[in-house]
Write a structure and sequence with these properties.
This protein has helices spanning 22-38, 46-65, 116-123, and strands at 3-5, 13-18, 73-81, 84-91, 126-132, 136-144. It is of the alpha+beta class. The chain has a single domain (3-144), classed as Heat Shock Protein 90. Strands 1-2-3-4-6-5 form a six-stranded antiparallel sheet, with helices on one face. Helix 2 (46-65) packs antiparallel against helix 3.
Length: 146
């Protein structure tokens, strides 16, 4: 695994490659909380708790829907401004795009999926996807740090 943390005074960002497994998804959440704590947002603050939920959902989606055997997913955290955190999770499956959230709560059938993006939509000020050539995608979400 390779990570990068920016120099003091520079734009803060953190990047980590993780295995496309449930363990990798859990580790993504833990690393995000740890990194935010190092940047001054303790685990018990609203910003850190929101980021943990969003990272957990995006990482779980990358493992569940974006997995390609032998390929990792990438977690990236960027403090874009003093009050905005951009969370990015990139996977190698560009052919599987997340569906936009419905404006109503989905059917409570436990076999249904897709509820997690409602959480992302609730906590993020905006979110979306970008292609990641040659064949992947990045799902991103911007969260308030205040």
């Amino acid at each position: 695994m390779k990570s990068h943390i920016s120099a003091p005074g520079a734009t803060r960002h953190f990047t980590q490659l993780l295995s496309a497994t449930s363990r990798g998804a859990r580790l993504a959440r833990l690393l995000a909380v740890q990194q935010l704590a190092e940047w001054g947002w303790p685990p018990s603050c609203t910003a850190s708790e929101s980021a943990a939920l969003v990272v957990a959902e995006l990482a779980a989606n990358a493992v569940t829907h974006g997995r390609v055997r032998g390929r990792c997913f990438r977690l990236r955290l960027i403090v874009e401004a003093p009050d905005t955190l951009r969370v990015e999770v990139a996977d190698p499956r560009g052919d599987r795009q997340p569906q936009p959230c419905a404006t109503t709560v989905p059917d409570p059938d436990p076999d249904e999926s897709g509820r997690g993006l409602l959480l992302v939509d609730a906590f993020a000020t905006r979110w979306g996807t970008e292609p990641r050539p040659p064949s992947g995608k990045t799902v991103w979400a911007c969260l308030p740090l205040t």
